[in-house]
Design a protein that fits this description.
Shape: globular
CATH architecture of the largest domain: Alpha-Beta Complex
Number of helices: 9
Order of helices and strands: EHEHEEHEHEHEEEEEHHHEEEH
Oligomer: single chain
Largest sheet: 6 strands, parallel
Number of domains: 2
Structural class: alpha/beta
Strand content: 15-25%
């Protein structure tokens, strides 16, 4: 039986680390593509040569064109310009829209039954663009944001309470960025709501740190942005899809009335399985949470309006 095939577009830090994690877990063969001559080929060869040591037989292929991507089960789009210190996600909008639009046209033509996972920022708007350009059903276009934001929130909660990260579940909704909506009421430690374990002030501090999670890392690195946790988050989604796990994860999905939002990609809890988004789970929001989600959605719509999508 042949292994599934995953294309990762963009061989920068996020893309290459995604490829690394996929083959280390023996989930699929990977095609790594990039416009920079030699970069995907070099990284692919390096990853192949780690195979005997790690014990994986997955193939990794590097390419500068899209021919090798044909017949992919999943296409992960990480290509785009990275944020620099002081640069807003909006600054990235037009340039990355151009890049993502081109990638979607090239890859979906060659893999018409694939599932698209969009990682490029500004995430929610890029997912909307990929959905429009691909013509794919909404179940097969998903944005990676909530898994990462929740992972950051879980990290901070575990540190604060000095417990295992495995005990912590956390939910973050909304757009990926400053307007994201972490939900302490739905976040738990071994089933205990964190609202029972942390003061309101500490919770607010953790929520704020989560919303600024990416910017904090950009500020520390000076050049470049986070990639280990983003790549791990992508692979969590890839595994849920390829193994038909029906795993509930917060992802950016197309809403048609859920949470009172229509015609927009926003982060919500979804059930991920072999066909992509199998179900959007609707949870009851308190008035302040619903208002925060509304503000987040408005920020996303502002970007999609600028792009005319």
């Amino acid at each position: 039986m042949s292994r599934p095939k995953v294309t990762v577009v963009g061989a920068g830090n996020v893309g290459a680390t995604t490829a690394q994690y996929i083959v280390e877990r023996e989930l699929a063969d990977v095609v790594l593509t990039d416009v920079v001559d030699g970069l995907p080929q070099g990284k692919a060869l390096d990853l192949l040569q780690a195979g005997p040591v790690h014990g994986y037989d997955c193939r990794v292929t590097g390419a500068n064109d899209y021919e090798a991507t044909a017949g992919s089960d999943i296409i992960v789009i990480t290509a785009g310009l990275a944020r620099k210190p002081g640069m807003s996600r909006d600054d990235l909008l037009m340039k990355n829209a151009e890049i993502v639009g081109g990638v979607v046209a090239e890859t979906t033509r060659r893999s018409p039954t694939a599932i698209l996972i969009v990682v490029t920022n500004p995430l929610d708007a890029m997912a909307q663009l990929a959905f429009r350009r691909s013509g794919f059903p909404k179940q097969r276009v998903i944005g990676m944001a909530g898994v990462l934001d929740s992972a950051r929130f879980r990290t901070f909660i575990a540190q604060e309470l000095d417990v295992s990260v495995e005990n912590v579940t956390a939910f973050v909704l909304g757009g990926h960025g400053d307007t994201m909506v972490p939900l302490p009421r739905y976040s738990t430690v071994a089933g205990i709501p964190i609202t029972e374990l942390l003061s309101k002030e500490r919770l607010e501090a953790l929520v704020k740190r989560t919303a600024n999670g990416g910017a904090e890392i950009v500020g520390l690195l000076k050049t470049g942005s986070a990639y280990y946790a983003p790549a791990a988050s992508v692979v969590d989604m890839v595994e849920a899809i390829l193994k038909d796990k029906k795993k509930v994860l917060p992802c950016t999905a197309y809403l048609e009335g859920e949470y009172g939002l229509k015609g927009l990609f926003v982060g919500v809890p979804v059930k991920l399985a072999r066909r992509g988004v199998e179900q959007i789970l609707q949870i009851t929001l308190a008035p302040d949470e619903a208002a925060a989600l509304g503000r987040s959605a408005a920020a996303v719509r502002e970007l999609t309006d600028k792009l005319g999508i």
